[in-house]
Amino acid sequence: MSNEKVQQLAALVKEFDIIDLSRSYEEGMPVWITHPRYFASVWENQSWGDSAFSKKIEMGEHNGTHMDSPGHMIPAGDKHYFIDKLDPKKFNGRLLTIDLPHFLGKEVHICDAAIIKDWESKHVPIEAGDLVFIRYGQDDKYGICPNHRDFVANWGGLSKDGAEYLVSKNISVAGTDTLSIDALDNADFDAHKTLLGNDVYVIEVLVNLDKVPAVCFVEALPVKYKDGSGSPVRVLAYVPR
User: Fold this and answer.
1) Element (H or E) spanning 77, and its range?
2) Distance between CA atoms of 115 and 65, rounded to whole angstroms?
3) List of long-range contacts for 37-44, beta carbons under 8 Å, 24+ apart
4) How large is the angle between the packed helices 160-168 and 113-122, nearest 10 degrees?
5) CA dist., res. 159 & res. 169, Å (int)
6) Is 174:163 a contact under the CB 8 Å cutoff?
7) Which domain holds residue 181?
């Protein structure tokens, strides 16, 4: 019976297109102002007489498309707050994408509970275990240094009551195409603290959210760093053909 289920799942997956929602890691990619930048240097090369080609990578835990663990914002002695102790069951599930590109460049750029509820009324109710990603259209402003300034100059964010509403729906992960789930002008990091403080993981710097439907399936797999506050994450959306 188990083999039959595996075969059924393998056959079902082939009926989906896969959309990569992750940014490529490369030098010059925009990062949070206080975080280390990404660097890669050739460590061994066949042209040097080495048997293989490999690179040495230096980066911050929160570079590029990445997942925040609760330990990023919530001080705790309990090790379950760190990336290697997170519940893998939360890394995949139904993805709901709230597309708000009309916010791009506007003074009002906060996604609150009312906006989320309005989206639900037009699409589907948010359910326990869902992953909810919000697109502000910031992905259109992404650029490699020195063409990164528009991406890091201003961005939309999730309000505290919006975060509280998502927590009340018992979602697994909240994501965004911006550098932070909080708006640039939210120095209190209300969305971060509300979500992470309730074991809702956060994914930032997503891309291609305009290429997925309002409802699909997603998996998001972080690297298993011991006691990591965050990790690069490969995010793959499965879209029915």
Assistant:
1) none
2) 25
3) 37/63, 38/63, 38/64
4) 50
5) 16
6) yes
7) 2-240
